[in-house]
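G., before I forget:
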Amino acid sequence: MNDRLNPAAKRVVNESGIEIRPVYTKEDVERSGGFGFIGDPGAYPFVRGIHPLMYRHRPYTMRQYTGFGNPGDTNRRFKYLIANGQTGLNVAFDLPTQCGLDSDDPLAHGEVGRVGMAVDTLRDFEVAFDGIDLERITVSLTVNGAAPQLIAMYLAMAEKRGYDVAKLRGTAQNDILKEFIGRGTWIYPVEPSVNLVGDTIEYCAKHAPKYSPVSVCGYHIRESGADPVQEMAYAFCIAKAYADEAIRRGLDVDEFAGRLSFNFNVFGNLFEQVAKFRAARGLWAKIVTEHYGARKPESGWMRMIAGGGGGGLTFEQPEVNIVRGAYYALIAALAGAQTTALCCYDEAYTIPTEYAQRISLRTMQLLLEEMGLADTVDPLGGSWYVETLTNQMRQKMEQAMAEVDAEGGIVKLVAEGAIQARVSAQAYRMQRAIESGEFRKVGVNCYRVEQAEELEVQMHPYNEDDAREQVARLNEARAARDASRAAAALGAVRAAAREGRNVMPAVFEAVKAYATVGEITECLAEVYGRYREPVRF
Amino acid sequence: MSRAMPIKVLLAKPGLDGHDQGAKVVARALMDAGMEVIYTGLRQTPEAVARIAQDEDVDVIALSSMAGSHLPFCERLKTLLERAGLEDKLWVIGGNLPRQDHGRLRELGFEGIFPSSSKLADIVHFIEAHAS
């Protein structure tokens, strides 16, 4: 047996709490549940990938998270990345936009255009995507609290440019439940927030069936301190909450499940990460098929962006993050991600420079072009180690999901702050383990260099003129619009919210009337109220 | 010096930044060190921070800022804290604070500056040594 092969090996336990053996054999796979839940690529349960040919047919989309200043600045960066071979866009919005505030709101002071692009009206979307072919380059909008407005703006902008919205592809993050756990761009209380996600799913299923209205994020839960099993388990509990909401409205699972997508993190142990994605793919297919009774195979596809890895990057020796990023990209490729992106080496400090963005892009390109990652589907499939871990991780995820359900479900636990408390307790344990040296981080608690040897990172400048220009453009848009049309459209948003109807048709009309992000938020907040954060330790 | 009462810390998240993992980790470390921590949660205005600091009669006003708006926030907060007579309290700030901004933060009255990668023990010791 394994232990006889290496009896003196020191005990190793991965982050998910699974004890790792020094050597794996076929018997380990059999003991962990066998080879029965693997299948072929493109066939249920999709452990090996959702398509039979995976990257042979279509390589992963490369989609760096980008946006800063005003829409003109961001449009220039988009074009730079596309010129360098990027195949999708992932838009970063500034915090006022994400929190549903206009650029001239007093709460937006000092924050306009700082961590992403500022958006107030449809005019900003027209500028941001000017000259970009929305059929060739799919766009992902990283917005949650203000997702109804921004989805509507995207569709309205595309429609105005002559695209058929019924055929338009693209993604909105729009996962509000995880915002309460980490990231924090919530606006309304938990229940109406989930209801709004339901509105967007329902609206898109009827009017923009190729558009992915939700990308459920384990990513930020992991960034907040969750282990890899919790990352997937909580994300699936959240995805189920949205699916339940859609079904409650009378949608059939096959009408929307195929358009749900996921966003996961890639930092950590390489084998544990690859097993995590393979396990999760099988588990999601099982949930959609067995629990929801989906009949279309694609309803059970766990389509994902796997990337980022910010939580694994270090402030110390930032140039070493280029190497970490290369391994993270390798994980995403080995895991069969549909889309990937990398946090840049300087991202612990600042908005990445063009240079840093290009290094990330080249990292993902060279896996496809030089390293053979596009040649063969699921290259780690059949490894006794990876198959054993895949089985074990899936069982742990199922167990973690069952625990959430037994405690009253994810919506209740998030509203009470219970998940947040659990995740932050773990972040604290991890921080202490890093500080004690028990959990090794290169350059942080071992192999450190003197301060003088640390690379100086070039900081992204914050341009206050951009913020002033943004406010000026907002005022121009308010002055130029048909005031009575905008007021009537906002009244219709308020009425739809009050009467419990889907607000999306009214939001769509409002953005076309150049109502602002903040005005629409106000209308909804009048009815829904605003979230008050429960603080629990 | 021994104190009759535990050090009382207001730990606030200024502005719209939603990254609270660091703040919550620091809150736990301060509590484990025996301090009383009032954690505000997200989205605090300078006015709210000053008001809570005054109402709760804290010894330490601590901010955690990850999204780059620390200077405009702290400039407004300084005036409000001074107006509330809280200039003798210990002001500290942690988070994503570029080195080029440390001088300005010190000028504004922040004695403790803890950029990303600071150690919990260093934060605890600094507060223990400087809170009056």
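The longest strand of chain A covers residues 260-265. The longest helix of chain A spans residues 384-406.

More on Monday.
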